[in-house]
């Protein structure tokens, strides 16, 4: 299939995300002002990028904008923040930057995902259906929620919000590929991940190493996940199967990247007291249970089991290196998402993000093609096929409908009240990085780092060191006027 056709298909498959963006900008109560931010954590990325504009000198590294201190060490680096800083310096609205950045990488992520299927399975039938299910397929989370509401809560008919009963974070943790594309930064991380996989499938080992390093710099969770998957796969290929197609420098290079990434995040950053405090806050036990795992992944696991049966009949469980890569992908991603079984949890659910689902789906593509061929031969084939597709797509169809039907009524980071917007505009023109900001409004404290140069003494709950203590100090200052010695000057 030509790249032009795949690109057009990728744009069409991005329509749900486009509708969500339009919903954010146009479907809200009169008076609210859309910012372009679509998630509570989105301003964090722009706040990080803002540090480059406020530093007064160029450096690859930036300081934590939520530390509240002008002398906070510049020890962090994600390459995309340099781009965000450049675009902000040109005068673009911070939230708009993230919105259109995410839309661009939504299209690119889908395109590269379809290229992976084309590269791994060049002769498959039913390509349009396979592509659609890979991009927007899911599990039975939504249908399970509706069933639980009817059986256990006696809600007949069940409200649409019942689809979240079995879906963590109201679906925003993105347990399948398409769901993650609603998050601008996840669309970008998924592009880097999938592009690195595509380079490996094409045997472009040096470029794959470069993109793996870039991915590790961009996001610790996705970087570690990708590197762990690849290290597991190449270990099997080189040590047990003696695969000569994979050069040793690729194996050694991945090992060096994963060791340097671990050294940076676990040793170097923790040598700074400010980051050690943040590390404790980041080490949250956010996980998910088997009651969620089963409906989320049951469809791709059944297909994977079917693929095993077909491979066994052919004489091998894993007939190709590509199949071994995809299966390693699914298994390693799952183990990382449940790493509380082995070590102290550090937000295990961050390793879901559709990666488990994608690995098993790609492994099971031949089984899915075989199943489609079988369906074509039975009575009422059209009705059965349509039912199968709707069930496979049900998670994202119902979730997107629920998302788009709700009108934004209240102020949050994505929609500001006029007085909040006026305050932030004033701060953007009247503050410097020598100013310390206090407010009894959370959004002012949080978004002050985005729209102005001042530091907030307490702001984002996970990126502010000792958040609760600082909040109490700020409230005490606003109430009594008591000034801490750290604030003088």
Defining key terms:
globular; two-stranded antiparallel sheet; 21 helices; mainly alpha; 489 residues
Number of helical stretches of at least 4 residues: 21
Oligomer: single chain
First-to-last CA distance: 64 Å
Largest sheet: 2 strands, antiparallel
Radius of gyration: 24 Å
Q: Could you give the count of β-strands?
A: 6
Which of globular, elongated, flat, extended, rod-shaped describes the shape? Answer: globular
Structural class comes to: mainly alpha
The helix content, as a percent range, equals: 55-70%
Describe the structure in your own words.
With 489 residues, the chain is mainly α. The chain is 63% helix and 3% strand. It has 21 helices and 6 strands. It has helices spanning 3-13, 15-26, 42-54, 79-89, 94-120, 127-136, 141-151, 177-180, 184-201, 205-218, 220-240, 248-268, 273-282, 290-314, 321-337, 355-363, 365-376, 381-405, 418-430, 442-451, 467-480; strands at 33-34, 62-63, 74-76, 415-416, 436-437, 455-456. Strands 1-4 form a two-stranded antiparallel ribbon. A two-stranded antiparallel sheet has the order 2-3. Helix 11 packs across helix 15.
